[in-house]
Design goal:
alpha/beta; globular; Sc_DH/Rdtase_CS; binds 1,4-dihydronicotinamide adenine dinucleotide; Rossmann fold
Length: about 260
């Protein structure tokens, strides 16, 4: 791994870091000697996750924070606490997400919760952390976890689709802004996982279904694509031929063909 931000003693903050893709990312960063902060709403899982990370990186290099990403004050406090403990942030992975299912005419509060966690949490996390990350003047990464559903917007679960479409649009805007910021060495990336076997998708299953990826496979793929400089980190689905998958995404988002965010429309 040779991305200049993913190096020993740099600092990574991962929301939704107590399980699934977020935890796998935290473990991978910890293995490179980075200091990691996992932020999650689930305190019990945070404790378990911190124990595992401490065995990789040493307890002094692991921080946990109980955070609800839908709340501005929670994220503001997280940013301050990481600066106090580790001096600042080099990698922010805005990854916390929920998928409780939704219908078009479902309850407004239910829609608002999905959008508040999945979309506003990612937007607000980026807005709160980016200024200090830019000011640090170092190579840095903001990785936002989107979804194929935010690109192809298939029927069913409209609130989730809308939230993830918003993540895509915001991350493109963020990268555009960062590119146009003088002396800025921070870049934004949109992680678009395939079907990953996690608590989010298990739905009562205890065995990984054929075709699903593990969180670790997803993170390995992400690290390779970050090293290659991709903006869209489009994970293939094992059950969809790669060429067809890319074609499907290209149809929905022409930008992926160049793998860079649009500079002008
Ligand atoms: P997961 O359920 O294992 O992890 C999500 C984590 O987010 C959990 O630890 C949960 O406690 C935390 N979380 C939930 N609400 C939160 C809040 N308000 N504040 C802070 N933390 C909160 O699920 P997974 O699959 O690892 O999901 C990670 C991201 O990947 C999500 O954004 C999800 O939408 C996205 N994704 C997952 C796919 C999959 O197939 N698993 C496919 C496409 C996208």
């Amino acid at each position: 791994m040779s991305h200049p931000a993913i190096v020993k003693d740099n600092v990574a903050v991962i929301t939704g870091g107590a399980s699934g893709i977020g935890f796998a990312a935290a473990a991978a960063f910890a293995r490179t000697g980075m200091k990691v902060c996992i932020a999650d709403v689930d305190q019990g899982r945070l404790v378990e996750a911190a124990t595992k990370l401490s065995s990789i990186a040493g307890a002094a290099n692991v921080m946990t924070a109980v955070v609800d990403v839908s709340k501005t004050e929670s994220l503001t406090e997280l940013e301050r606490a990481v600066r106090e403990r580790f001096g600042g942030t080099d990698i922010l992975m805005n990854n916390a997400g929920i998928q409780p299912g939704s219908t078009l005419f479902g309850e407004p509060d239910h829609w608002q919760r999905i959008i508040a966690v999945n979309m506003w949490g990612i937007i607000n996390g980026s807005r709160i952390f980016a200024p200090d990350m830019i000011a640090r003047g170092r190579s840095g990464l903001i990785i936002n976890t989107g979804s194929k559903q935010g690109i192809t917007t298939p029927p069913g679960d409209p609130a989730y689709n809308v939230s993830k479409a918003g993540v895509k649009a915001f991350t493109e805007a963020l990268q555009h802004e960062l590119r146009n910021t003088k002396d800025c060495r921070l870049t934004a990336h949109l992680l678009i996982p395939g079907f990953v076997f996690t608590g989010l998708t298990a739905r009562g299953r205890t065995e990984k279904p054929a075709g699903a990826w593990t969180p670790e496979q997803t993170v390995d793929f992400m690290l390779a694509r970050l090293e290659a400089g991709d903006f869209y980190i489009l994970c293939p689905d094992n059950d969809v031929p790669r060429a067809l998958d890319e074609k499907r995404m290209l149809w929905a988002a022409g930008d992926i063909v160049e793998n860079r965010p649009p500079l002008s429309r």
